[in-house]
Amino acid sequence: MSSTAMTSSARALAHVARTTCTPIAPLATTAAQRRHQSSSSSLPTIGLIPGDGIGHEVIPAARRILETVLPGIPLVDLDAGFATFERTGTALPPSTVQVLRDQCQGALFGAVSSPIHKVAGYSSPIVQLRKELDLYANVRPVVNKKAFNASGEQVGCDLVIVRENTECLYVKQERLETDANGESIAFATRQISQRASRRITETALRLAQQRAAARTSGTSLLTVVHKSNVLSVTDGLFRETARAVFAAAGSPTAVKIEDQLVDSMVYRLFRAPDSVDVVVAPNLYGDILSDAAAALAGSLGLVPSANVGPSFVMGEPVHGSAPDIAGKGVANPVAAIRSAGMLLAHLGYADEATRIDQAVETVMARGIATPDVPGGKASTNDVTSAVVAALQA
Ligand code: NAI
Ligand code: MG
């Protein structure tokens, strides 16, 4: 398209994300994949869990995309979230977990609204689901050819954050005590295990090796993020375990390994986004880094993820339930759509994942985007319909 033929929104979008779901090949053959591959030619069954807020807008959008690329795909609607808690007294009904375990090969999760104050009996269902289904790796790619560095140069970024998903402060062991002055003092346990650190580094190393193999340079960079200058026991264990995994793999020459303290990692993300490749991090650091990295993509509404475990895969946009825009019809469906693409890629449907990726790229290049993306004026429905049309073209 010539620059004169571009719409104004397309021009505004020119510096925004081209985050794709295809760079992440299946990390391993999951049990779900094996189950699916060995069963028959039938399509995998996917559980859809919208949750709360814009989950009810972006998951129906992703449903349309799944139904377009794999007509007849069995989809099961499942409950979880704060509204479910208010209605039933539990945020993650046992029936939801049971159906996922017994009937589904994968799932797509929207987002839940977790209150910032303590609500008796409530616990975040996404944190619980990741543990229940042993989804120990959260893989979060951020790709934007138009990302800028701190010098204002358009250097682009193509990075993936591999977030440990089961422990760290998310073990949620907190207690409130009273100090000698009669004032409250709160404590939280931060759990870092050798097992979880090993599993997540093995996943990140596999990914780094895949990326190296796919490049003409034949190399990649694995950055181990921690804060072991302060937390020498917990983050020290994470760092040492990551190094041991690399050594046990024979210190592959295609992958360079390095350390980065978490605070300066954020600085580096924005100062030199093109210097970041594969990042492996404990749970909370990975969560914060991936929202920060989403800014490089242009909007949280563009960034997908896959929660991966030995026997299950769950796609999930990086964003939350966005109560500030919920119900307005303007939630960006792209993160959820790309998460559906990552889910399909992990289930062995690489062609369908690539088609989704390309359709999203086409729509964004035409300037059809929701308002969270600079210049975007379209509704959730407009964007979704445009992606469906691009898939059918
Ligand atoms: P958020 O990700 O929901 O929203 C942050 C900002 O990004 C808001 O301005 C929002 O409008 C915007 N945004 C997010 N997704 C968007 C999309 N698809 N399209 C357009 N704009 C989008 O984070 P926030 O506000 O910190 O949390 C809101 C709620 O979400 C909280 O209750 C939190 O607990 C929950 N949350 C849930 C997560 C999950 O279920 N996995 C993850 C993160 C937060
Ligand atoms: Mg987050």
Automatic annotation (TrEMBL):
<dbReference type="GO" id="GO:0051287">
    <property type="term" value="F:NAD binding"/>
</dbReference>
<dbReference type="GO" id="GO:0000287">
    <property type="term" value="F:magnesium ion binding"/>
</dbReference>
<dbReference type="GO" id="GO:0047046">
    <property type="term" value="F:homoisocitrate dehydrogenase activity"/>
</dbReference>
<dbReference type="GO" id="GO:0005739">
    <property type="term" value="C:mitochondrion"/>
</dbReference>
<comment type="similarity">
    <text>Belongs to the isocitrate and isopropylmalate dehydrogenases family.</text>
</comment>
<dbReference type="GO" id="GO:0006102">
    <property type="term" value="P:isocitrate metabolic process"/>
</dbReference>
<protein>
    <recommendedName>
        <fullName>Isopropylmalate dehydrogenase-like domain-containing protein</fullName>
    </recommendedName>
</protein>
<dbReference type="GO" id="GO:0006099">
    <property type="term" value="P:tricarboxylic acid cycle"/>
</dbReference>
<dbReference type="InterPro" id="IPR019818">
    <property type="entry name" value="IsoCit/isopropylmalate_DH_CS"/>
</dbReference>
<dbReference type="InterPro" id="IPR024084">
    <property type="entry name" value="IsoPropMal-DH-like_dom"/>
</dbReference>
<dbReference type="GO" id="GO:0004449">
    <property type="term" value="F:isocitrate dehydrogenase (NAD+) activity"/>
</dbReference>
<feature type="domain" description="Isopropylmalate dehydrogenase-like">
    <location>
        <begin position="45"/>
        <end position="387"/>
    </location>
</feature>
<dbReference type="Pfam" id="PF00180">
    <property type="entry name" value="Iso_dh"/>
</dbReference>
<dbReference type="GO" id="GO:0009085">
    <property type="term" value="P:lysine biosynthetic process"/>
</dbReference>
